[in-house]
Specification:
The chain is mainly α and about 425 residues long. It has 20 helices and no strands. It is globular, with a radius of gyration of 24 Å. It comes from Marinitenerispora sediminis.
């Protein structure tokens, strides 16, 4: 675009990531229609892409987007006779409200976004539909990103999202935080989505960067809000503790070139001690007062990593025992894979590899690159380099980000036999 202000496109993307969920929640509360809210929010972003490069990014970009989206929604409703009654009701509501838009969207938080989270977690929706809808609409992830999070094709995920929105509309599911009697049934769905959102920030499913700190920090921010609203819910404390303890490693998880730094190579002096202390203080809250939940157990595992001065000093027997508890609470091939890695640290690579090979038939793991990378690492440690190379190739085909692919290419080159006649530069016997 001619005359585009430097950095305007990046500014729009940054604002979109920061404000999208807030904007959508505010629009849904105002208009009561998720499809309409999503469409006018997208139109407001498109308008920003046209105007901001020329006029500059406004001082309060969130308010600009909200005002623009509201106008577009009202214009659309005026053109649609089926919405005439709704528009009249909305106009009465608008007349009662303050005439000026908010200076920013923070006044609409925390409750409105949580209202939308809990609405999308309604039991009338399937578990997968609930999570997909929340990640797509509230977290601002693209449909392919959500599909990667659930390990399904993008077309399949797009259909799930459409069906979920249709269900909300046809079942007239209200946009509100549920009452105390409804909360236990909906809270696990909200926690799962916050965890999925954090996971996308911790290890991006695709793109040029390994991490998306803004996404991870948004998940933490929402978990803090939920913790303030529901201080008696131990699994909320557990999830927040888990996020804090894992996110504390962010500065040490990548090297200067952006390539992943594995746990045993990380400079632990770069871990965020304040964040670790905050997380450690929440772990006893999550583990006391009754049987532990899955997030509390995972937080306890993360706490053992955070407290260890190095990999060798980590309490691997205790970590394996906690994974045993976690598998009983929430059986999952991914958890079984993580337990196998812990067993490899406790009992040696051969024991860990045997457990990983037992999981080879799991459909979920066939397309999960960390599984193949874990097998490759253990095969390499056992000196089975040809098999390690094959596993690294599988992981490389499935990895979603360029930094992960770069690390896997480097690991693959270290175990691949040289081409016939090539000079050997390794001590591994190739």
């Amino acid at each position: 675009m001619q005359g585009q202000a430097p950095g305007a496109g990046r500014a729009v993307e940054s604002v979109f990531r920061e404000e999208h969920g807030r904007l959508l929640a505010t629009l849904v509360r105002r208009f009561g229609d998720l499809d309409l809210a999503e469409e006018v929010a997208s139109e407001a972003i498109e308008a920003a892409l046209v105007h901001w490069p020329v006029q500059g990014v406004p001082a309060r970009p969130g308010a600009w987007l909200l005002t623009t989206a509201r106008r577009k929604a009202v214009d659309r409703l005026r053109r649609d006779q089926a919405y005439a009654a709704r528009l009249a009701a909305l106009q009465v509501e608008a007349d009662r409200a303050a005439p000026a838009p908010p200076a920013d969207l923070s006044a609409d938080l925390p409750d409105e976004r949580l209202q939308l989270f809990f609405t999308c977690a309604h039991p009338a929706l399937s578990g997968e539909a609930r999570g997909a809808l929340m990640l797509r609409c509230l977290a601002g992830l693209t449909t392919p990103e959500v599909a990667r999070a659930y390990l399904v094709p993008p077309a399949t995920m797009a259909q799930r999202i459409v069906r979920a929105k249709k269900k909300i509309r046809e079942a007239r599911i209200p946009f509100r935080v549920p009452g105390a009697d409804e909360l236990p049934g909906r809270l696990p769905g909200v926690l799962q989505v916050l965890y999925s959102l954090f996971t996308e920030g911790y290890a991006a499913s695709a793109g040029p960067d390994l991490q998306r700190p803004d996404v991870a920090e948004e998940a933490i921010r929402l978990a803090r809000v939920l913790r303030r609203l529901l201080p008696g819910e131990r699994e909320v404390a557990g999830l927040l503790a888990l996020m804090l303890l894992v996110h504390a490693r962010r500065a040490a998880r990548t090297g200067p070139d952006g390539e992943p730094v594995l746990l045993h190579d990380q400079d632990r002096s770069r871990w965020d001690r304040d964040m670790i202390e905050e997380g450690l203080a929440l772990v006893p809250v999550a583990l006391t007062g009754g049987p532990a939940g899955p997030y509390g157990v995972q937080a306890a595992i993360a706490a053992l990593h955070a407290e260890a001065p190095d990999l060798a000093a980590t309490d691997w027997p205790q970590i394996v025992a906690l994974y045993d508890v976690l598998l009983a609470l929430a059986p999952s091939p991914v958890i079984a894979q993580n337990r196998a890695a812990a067993v490899a640290m406790r009992d040696g690579p051969e024991a860990g590899l045997a457990l990983l090979d037992e999981l080879a038939g799991e459909d979920l793991l066939r397309g999960y690159h960390p599984y193949h990378a874990a097998r490759a690492d253990l095969l390499e440690r056992l000196g089975r380099f040809a098999e390690a190379a094959a596993a690294y190739r599988q992981a490389l085909e499935l990895a979603g980000t360029e930094p992960e692919r770069a690390l896997l290419r480097r690991r693959l080159a270290a175990v691949e036999p040289p081409a016939p006649g090539a000079e050997v530069h390794t001590s591994r016997g190739w």
